[in-house]
Amino acid sequence: MTTSPGPAADLEALLSQLGRWPDVQAPNLFAADAADRLILDTAARELASTGWPSTMAIVGDHYGALAAGALALGSTSVRVHTDSLTARRAIEANVRQLLPDADDLLRFFPLAQVAEQASTILLALPRGLDVLDEQAAALAAVAAPEARLFAGGRIKHMSRSMNQVLAARFARVDVSLARQKSRVLIASDPLPKQPASSFPATATHHVNGTDFTLHAGAGTFGAARLDPGTRLLLEHLPDLSAHAALVDLACGNGSIGVYAALTHPRLQVIASDHSASAVASTLAAAARNGLSDRMTAAQDDALSRLPANSATLITLNPPFHIGNTVTADIAFKLIDDAARVLAPGGVLLCVFNSHLRYRSELARRIGPTAQLARDKTFTVTSSIKES
User: Fold this and answer.
1) In the beta sheet, which residues pair with residue 107?
2) Dihedral-angle region of residue 106 (phi above 0 means left; psi in -120 to 50 means alpha; beta otherwise)
3) Domains of the chain listed by start with CATH number
């Protein structure tokens, strides 16, 4: 006598089929990990007495493990917030392919709205405590009074400070047993009086005699700080007067575009980033510095919105990690798209960690590459696209 697989086996089969498209692929990168599985299993166990909720709020899902898992376990309305456009497209693609009948049950929302009156929230823990606090503040402010938040991650990326961040927003925080080097924090009952959030943050910076102000959320790389690599690039920014427009790829908090526009009064800036928080922060920085008429910013997967051979100048400070995984693949993807968008003779100004030694890759993927500046940590280069 044979028996059919149970719900756990069905869920595992689903998770094992998830893909990473349109994100970069690599043998050590997966669409679902042990933390995703533990979040789903812990929530299912804790909710066994009341049943799996029909409405589920999800924050930080990377490729659809949490969203697809919630749908497979019985939710009929899955509300998702993800800061990354790449993640959103991956979630949509996976649900459409693996759960086509549930495609219309999936919706995306801003962070401030995703958990409105939700009783259950699943969250993939972010890297930073500031991001977690920004998320927890937004969720606790609108969730149902009896809400429970299941926040999971890999133990090596977790700290006791995460418990404290959640405890400032929720009346109770419990910790699951560890499994496969992962753990889940269970935060219950949002506090009626919430402490003030530190974000968005504002800071003014001074480079080469020019002052500019950044205004950014915690989810933006660097928030309102000026990271050392970007500062080195700005300190050695060449004269851009020959260019009508600058494409600021992976714009982050908008610091490169803002400084370039302030120091070149005729320059138009076209900024893009996969992060919704980064785009909002860049637009806020443009407004704070009186540049809204010369700066635009849009959420994009690299530069997919721009046609080939359409730009004469691109700047790039590429990330070197995807989530918690360090990889050069995302930088190479951005460099390759910059090569596509640059017109022959166009220039890519790039800053990167010196130990990554991207110069040879820039020369191979773009064209002749010269070093403009280097310190003990970062290197700034200029690459010219060959005809």
Assistant:
1) 79
2) beta
3) 7-190 (3.40.50.150), 201-384 (3.40.50.150)
Element (H, E) at 352: strand 342-353
Q: How many helices (H) and strands (E) does the chain have?
A: 11, 18
Instruction: For residue 152, report the phi and psi dihedrals to the nearest 5 degrees.
Output: -125, 155
| The dihedral sign for the CA sequence 348, 353, 355, 356 | negative
Residue 123 structure tokens = 């969250």
pLDDT along the chain (387 residues), means of 10: 50 93 82 97 96 97 97 97 96 96 96 97 96 97 97 97 98 98 98 90 98 97 96 98 98 98 99 97 99 98 96 94 62 96 99 92 98 97 94
DSSP characters over 67-101: HHHHHHTT-SEEEEE-SBHHHHHHHHHHHHHH-GG
Residue 327 three-state SS? coil
- b/e sequence 55-79, b meaning 16+ C-beta within 10 Å: bbbbbbbbbbbbbbbbbbbebeebb
